[in-house]
Amino acid sequence: MGYRFPKTFLWGGAIAANQVEGSHLTDGKGLSTSDIQPFGAFGELVEREEGDFNIKDVAIDFYNRYPEDIALFAEMGFKCLRMSIAWSRVFPNGDDDEPNEAGLAYYERIFSELEKYNITPLVTLSHYEMPLNLAKKYQGWGSRDTIGFFEKYARVVFERFGSKVKYWLTFNEINATLHEPFTGSGLPRECDEKMLFQAIHHQLVASAKAVKLCHELVPDGKIGNMMLGAILYPRTCNPDDILQTFTQNREWLMFGDIQVRGYYPSYMKRKFEDMGISLDITKEDLEALKETIDFVSFSYYMSGCASADPEMQEQAGDANMLKMIANPYLKASEWGWQIDPKGLRYLLNFLYDRYQLPLFVVENGLGAVDTVDENGQIQDDYRIQYLNDHLFQVGEALKDGVDVIGYTSWGPIDLVSATTAQMSKRYGYIYVDRDNDGNGSLVRTPKKSFYWYQSVISSQGEVLKDHTDK
To answer: Catalytic site residues (predicted)?
Structure first.
């Protein structure tokens, strides 16, 4: 028998509004930054014109089909669903005087549906989208004004949903702004380093203010941050590679350090000096940052390597918004993301040693092309192996003494990929009949992995197998 996870462990899956809901202008919703990214996070920004095609306009129609989808999640045994609220459903322009009641009512219905099945919602306030008006009028998080708009939005949702939602996250993969400024912060892509880090500062202050509001308005709730867990290994044991790796890992750990400790680490002060930039940081900002999070959450899809060798650096490839040097000991997915289950155990221990706060794995999964066989079934053994091997390592981290709250695998139902805006890059336990051109019936079909995950949850992880070195 395998390791039995704690009874309190939150098993589930994770989705994002802009990748599943569709109905992009229904019930008073405004355009979001995601709505002008029809080709994904790195693709061209396209102004909306009547009749143009954006696969996210319908996505998988979760906006209308959520009762069916939540029932399927419940059938698998989900204890938790990570989801996001579309900011532009609540404040269509971001700077509106009053919230959009129809948008609030929609999420109220979802939370009631989850409550019916005893599924705990974990809600992200901003998941790779913000009202497009804020990006156009204020340059997104480049403006200090956006802090106030976000604070107002957070207050509205905490007051409205605090009785139903006890787990919250502020921003999805907050460190992604370093790699894709528009997706992460609504910034112009040609922004300079000073504007980039000023926007990041505004976002961190806004996050801390939301944490304070949550503590005040949802006193029995918990609120965390969310980072893209991009752990890097040294390419060699050359001390130069060790230091290079140490420095590059700090680029994303900075976001956790500030949100856990409540102040800028000294290494960032040196970084700003070396870059020759001075940020607008007020005494009030520094005071606001002191309000710290209750737990640390992160996504984990892959690890990579770092090197101080310029020739080796030129070999770094794009993967999940990042530039990483390939690890010669690892295999990769169809999209070039290297598969490293042991890296998840390492990262869990690494973060717990650093922060001594509960951890939550809120994204992990395999994007792959699935084929429907002659019997109408999807035999996704490759996905089962990927998820088994990563969950086995979560169990190893728990045995190491790491406090892990839960695990919500990415895309429990097929959805539109954030980076490529494809339906063909599938993550789900549930197949959705829709292709990259928007064709298909949207019918839901459980895959083989659906029943596998059902057994994992019902056994509390005991059916997980150790494939180490096999």
So the answer is: 363
